[in-house]
Amino acid sequence: xxxxxxxxxxxxxxPTADSLHLGNYLGALRQWIELQADYEAIYSVVxxxxxxxxxxxxxxxxxxxxxxxxxxxxxxxxxxxVLFVQSQVPQHAQxxxxxxxxxxxxxxxxxxxFKDKSAKLGDQGVTVGLFDYPVLMAxxxxxxxxxxxxxxxxxxQHLELSRVLAGRLNSRFGEGTAVVPKPHIVxxxxxxxxxxxxxxxxxxxxxxxGIIELLDEPKVIAKRIKSAVTDSGSEIxxxxxxxxxxxxxxxxxxxxxxxxxxxxxxxxxxxxxGHLKVDLADLTVESLRPIREQTLxxxxxxxxxxxxxxxxxxxxxxxxxxVYARISRRFGIGQPPPGKRHQAEGGQ
Length: 348
Known about the structure:
Blueprint: E1 8-13, H1 22-35, E2 40-45, H2 47-50, H3 57-74, E3 82-85, H4 91-100, H5 105-109, H6 112-121, H7 128-142, E4 148-150, H8 156-173, E5 182-184, H9 218-226, H10 244-257, H11 261-267, H12 273-299, H13 302-331, H14 338-344
Parallel strand pairs: 1-2, 2-3, 4-5
Helix pairs in contact: 3-12, 4-7, 4-13, 7-8, 9-12, 10-12
C-alpha cells in the first residue's frame, strides 16, 4: 500500500441486502476507488450496524460475503486498501462503550435518522442499538485515526457527532487522544433517486422496481430503466424541480458516461423520453455487467474471499488495537503507558 499522502480515509457500507444498488455504487464506491490513490484507505462491511434491523443470521452471513465481493468487483483493491468485516475487529464494540460514556442522551436522541426511524417503528420497534447507531459509527471512524470520511449528505450529521466526540476526548484527556475527522463530500457526485419516486433517494427500503441492483440480470436493469417514472411534457431538459424524473435519468447517464449533463441534453434535442431511456438502459447494463460477473466469480470461491477478509481484519486489527489502547488508557482502563507502568505497579 503506497498512498500519496499519510492521510487516512475510512468508510463502510451495511450488508442489509443481497445486492448493493446503483446509488451505493455511484454515490459511495466510486469515491472509495478514487481515494485509494491518495490516501491510506480502510473500508469495512459494517455488519454490526446491520443488526439494528434484526436480520436472519444466515442472511447476514451470506450478505457480508456478497457485499465484500461487490466492493472488490467495483474496484476496491485489497492490495491498496484495507478491506475487512467490522465484527472481526472487537475494538469497534469496545470503543463504542467508551464513547457512550461521554455522549449525552439528548445529543444522541437529536439524530435525524433516529427520529425518522423511531417515528415509523414506534416505541416497541425501537431498540437501544438503533439509538446507539451514530455512536458506533463514531467509534468506527475514530478507531482508525481517520483524517477524512467519504459520506453522503444524509450521513453528515452522524459524522458531525464523530467530530464532536473526538474534540471532547481531546478536551478532556489532552490533544492527540483522537483525530478529528473531516467529511469528504464530492459536490459533483450524483445523487441517485428512486426510479419510481424520483423525489426520494434510491434506497433498499424504496420501491422494488425503483432500484437498480448491481447484481440484477441485464434484462431486469433494462426493464426498470425503461419503466422509470418521467414527467409531463416531452422535451428532454435539465429541470430538477419541475422534471425530477428526467433529471434523475440525466444524472445517471452523466455519472455512468462521464459526459456533462448539458452535453447530454443537447444530444437529445428534439428526441422523446423513450430515446433517452433506451440508450440509458444499454449504458447501465454494459456499465454494471463486469461488476456483476466478477462478483459472481468471487462468490464461487468463498474460501478465497474469506482469506482476503481475514487478511484485511488482521491489518485493521493492528491499527485498531493501538488506537483503542491509547484512548482507553486516557479513560483510566487498560495498561498504563510504558513510562508510568512501573509507578502504577508500586515501583519507585
